[in-house]
Amino acid sequence: MALKKLPPTPRNLLDPGRLVELMDLDIPIGLAKRPYYHWEQLRHRKPPGGYSVEEWWSVCQFRRGIESHELPMTSESGRHFRYCLTDRIRRALHEIDQKAAGSISASGLPDDDMRLQFLVDGHILEAITSAQLEGASTGHAVAASMLRSGSDPEDKDQLMIVNTYLAMNQIASMPDELKIADICSLHEQVTRGTLDNALNAGHIQTPNEKRVCIRDNRSGAILHEPPPAKFLPKRIRALCDFANESKPEKRFLHPVLRAIALHFWLAYDHPFVDGNGRAARMLYYWLAEKRGFWMLQYVPISTVLRKQPAKYGMAYQYVESDRNDLTYFFEYQLEVILKMLHEFLEHVRRRTDEVNRLRTRLKSEGFNHRQLAVLSHALRNPTANYSAKTHSISHDVSMPTARSDLTHLAEAGYLKVSGRQGKMQIYSRNRDKLRGSA
């Protein structure tokens, strides 16, 4: 579906007297019960209570304006971005508070080895789908095999995926306080070796360079014209101040909303020639992790965004066309986060159950969690191959530890040597020994 740039939403469509008459009536405006409709959605729906669409929209605009809160981010014209705390936002934040924050020990996740494996899995999936969202055409199976085996990328699309994976890993070592240099470093990592001009990696555009507009991939239509480059240094400094909470703000902003706003802000300013979307999503992960929402690093949001590129694009469009109302983007991104958080926790439950059944079944063997994970995977994927390198990357352990794990499994008869890759042995499932389901 091709996107088109939305015109500004209409302002008050009523005379002041009629608007005053309607203000005391219980006309839903999307803060509770009903969705937070944009004009493009609302004008095609039947208004409540027999009112006209124009009356409904005018009341929505006026009362949302009263309920909204300003953010430091501004458009080129100087208008502040704003948001409303709808019931959907409040409920989503409450659920994320319950499930994605707090101490690791109280999270209900399995032991350290399995947590590392889930984190690697999440980073791999985010790297693949985030790069695919930006145009990489490498399929999931090929990309995952490349990342787990540590193979060199064969083309630019594969390099985009490797770069994004390395950027996800880079987040943990970033400082707690964001600087412009950190943003440039992240961008340099996600675009290294993939740009027509290598000097553009990590380089914020300057006034003597042609600004890059955001266009629809299919139609080529301009969807967003970012602020002129001469304003970028000041705007990026303000972005860092916002991320670091280094200037007084009028009211508390939930850390997850701050992380989502940071995602939007960098994409809106579009300071780089390419790779702005990937860099913006990296900043979201960075802030979420630094503010205690560590589990969100396990939850690859680009998996949903890639499946819904039109909805992702429209969330941006709705904000910009409706007087910088970030509520639309907040609601959409929270929906994405919750969807992936639910899927992740269900995945953890299933995988934990599998491993526990295997642990009971093979109790006398004394296998560690990494070895049980290999056997569980082998039962679900009978044709899969394993090497010390893939095992090392998947579980974030040293090569000697990885070789020891696989050698022990082979000596016990559950794996067999099925070939070599250079000097490295390749293992596969021994069907005679490992039968049945986990």
Describe the structure.
With 438 residues, the chain is mostly helical. It has three domains: 16-67, no CATH class; 70-345, Fic-like fold, CATH 1.10.3290; 384-429, Orthogonal Bundle (Arc Repressor Mutant, subunit A). Helix content is 53%, strand content 7%. It is built from 17 helices and seven strands. The protein has helices spanning 16-23, 39-42, 53-67, 87-100, 112-133, 140-149, 156-170, 180-191, 232-244, 255-269, 276-290, 302-307, 309-321, 327-361, 369-380, 388-395, 399-411, and strands at residues 69-74, 80-83, 214-215, 222-224, 385-386, 415-421, 424-429. The longest helix is centred in the C-terminal third of the chain and has 35 residues, at 327-361. The two termini are 42 Å apart. The model has no long low-confidence stretch (mean pLDDT 90).
